[in-house]
Amino acid sequence: MLKGKHIILGITGGIAAYKCATLTRLLVKAGAEVQVIMTPNAKQFIQPLTLSTLSGKPVISEFFTANTGQWNSHVDLGLWADALIIAPATASTIGKMANGVADNMLVTTYLSAKAPVFVAPAMDLDMMRHPSTKRNLDLLRSYGNHIIEPAEGELASHLIGKGRMEEPENIVKVLDDYFKAGEDLQGKHVLITAGPTVEKIDPVRYISNFSSGKMGFALAEECACRGAHVTLVAGPVSLQTINAGIERVDVTTAVEMHDAVMQSLPQADAIILCAAVADYRVENVADKKIKREKDSAPVLHLAPNPDIARAVGQAKREGQVSVGFALETDNENVNAQGKLERKNLNFIVMNSLRDKNAGFQVDTNKVTIFTDKGEIIEGDCKSKRDVARDIVDVLYKYLSTK
Ligand code: C5P
Q1: Residue 365: CB within 6 Å of ligand 1?
Q2: Which among 80, 92, 137, 263 is most buried, taking Cβ atoms within 10 Å?
Q3: What is the mean pLDDT of residues 376-395?
Q4: Residue 336 within any structural domain of the chain
Q5: Cα 73 to Cα 230: distance, rounded to the nearest angstrom
Q6: pLDDT one-digit tens code per residue, 12-25
Q7: How far apart are CA 137 and CA 146, in angstroms?
Q8: Is 323 near ligand 1, meaning CB less than 6 Å away?
Q9: Are 371 and 347 a contacting pair, CB within 8 Å?
């Protein structure tokens, strides 16, 4: 899939830069045209001569070529590229990319690029888990960049932990898989619900849940990257959508979410119900703040909310594919399969709160997919974006056989 592709390989100043000779070689061998851009510090770790020889192109590092005064256009480079790989990506470059600090050729090109961006971080384990690195990586994810998670193992500091740059073979595979998936959802309309719903008790209090919306937003970005037109009906979350193919409808309550979904349903080819919808709302929302009572506690009367997935299951027409989620704390498989049938879903994605690093708020997830054909597909713990890719792969199969 990499044959003829224009790849910018951005190398930054980390010891894993030595692996970029192999990475360049593998990309060239796969038929890609590789333009290496190095940050000034990267040149301390590996010679530009090595990379220009392997790529067959002079390495770019500065805005101007010193002896000729020739300007290296970051805009032209950004437009030329079919993909950018930043490997190794140091904490410093990740921070600059996240915050638009365009003080070198690489970050400037990154800001100009329209192509997908793959970032392979490499750093010491403590740098990796520092809140600023985590926040910056989250920002990059929210811009739609693909983070190739570093592996665990012995680091240059001889400490053991997460921070080793992914091996060149695997980076090439990620890229190859990306191009394989291509724009397979071109012309499809995918309707997605995400985040929690918020049900008012009085003007200052509400009933809700811990959903962050990250999984639904990752699905929206993944579908849009693959060419779909996405309608994302989102409960109150603090996430941004990046891809221009996403039309976002912000809602607060389950009833509002239901109405927005029903309005878009007729046009949708696929519906992914990822939102954590409150099952109940308060029947009589107080119009003034409820005051503490001396002798008794107030009683909230709850009314059931619409089950959006079920309504979709009943209303969906021939050819529409619906996908549900089941977040369980116990009896996982039985509960998920029950929901698959009750809600007339084509497949359901189950995650368990018993699994570490899965479910609410976190950036990773571990899911099992149950299909209406009786298949059970178990996944590993991965970033939510990677889980989104797996889910959309299954969705694509359904859409292409309908
Ligand atoms: O809450 P529950 O576990 O039943 O959720 C299973 C699936 O149903 C999820 O896909 C969820 O988004 C959807 N759902 C919904 N409307 C509800 C409750 C759940 O769309 N009121």
Answers
A1: no
A2: 137
A3: 92
A4: yes
A5: 34
A6: 999 999 999 999 99
A7: 10
A8: no
A9: yes
